Amino acid sequence: MPMSKPILIIPNVYQLPALKPSCNCYLITGEKNTLIDVGIRENRDYVEKQLQELNLSISDIDDMIYTHCHYDHTGAGEFFSHSTVYAHPLCQDKLYYQEDYCIHALKYRIALPTRIPDSTLETNDYYQNGDFNFLVIHTPGHSDDGICLLDVEKKLLISGDTVFAKGVPPLITNSGSDASLINSIKKLQQYDIEIILPGHGKVDHDGNNTLIKTQENIIKRIQKNNKKTIEEAIQWQSTKY
Ligand SMILES: [Zn+2]
Predict the structure, then answer these.
(1) pLDDT band at residue 12, thresholds of 50, 70 and 90?
(2) Domains of the chain: total
(3) Cα–Cα distance measured from residue 63 to residue 76, given in angstroms and rounded to the nearest whole number
């Protein structure tokens, strides 16, 4: 399968096409080189090839950030032994215990992770690289350990598996819940967001509307299992926060 070239999203931000079923990987350049998610173990060569297109090598990746623990986001992490790896504290613990990831990896007969994050990022922490200043937001829902990275000034959201283009709601995996996901989407709706860089699928350029659609689609999904109307569900949420 031919490898596509890195896609420039905005200056210093690239999407690196990856071997399926890997997630989308994103590279932020500037002061240093930051890779956000790395894909399945077998994606290593893809990442290397994409980096070569940009005159970089695996050893040039200073920092790596995992949006959550799943194998399709973290599997190739072990090949980046010289990078500092960041993730939410729960993600760090879960990779250590091989919980959650382990279930998925075993299901697909994929090797277990060997690279545990070195450092943690929690809500209200900032991660900086050159002109980029990413606010970390814990966004449980798809899983319990997800984070989104938001550059408030650039209105740019790196959303992991929390938000996808056009508001397609993410799957709920064994540690997640729709209730948590709705709360996470509400947290994100406090900000003005234009570009969403999701963990799977296409880049979205209609961020605020996509968050509204995501919320509606989650409520529709919940409705299948109960008798609440959308109006009732929205009313219930408005009393909560
Ligand atoms: Zn996931």
Answers:
(1) very high
(2) 1
(3) 14
What tens digit of pLDDT does each residue of 47-61 get? Answer: 999 999 999 999 999
Backbone φ and ψ of 231, nearest 5°: -60, -45
How far, in Å, from the CA of 164 to the mean position of ligand 1?
12
Domain membership of residue 84 (yes or no) is yes
Contacts of 150 by beta carbon, 8 Å cutoff, 6+ apart: 134, 135, 137, 156, 157, 158, 188, 191, 193
Output the CA 169–ligand 1 centroid distance in Å.
Answer: 12
Distance 106 CA to ligand 1 centre (A): 15
Establish if 1 belongs to a structural domain: no
- Residue 228 clears pLDDT 90, i.e. is over it: no
CATH number at residue 32: 3.60.15.10
Does residue 8 carry a pLDDT above 80? Answer: yes
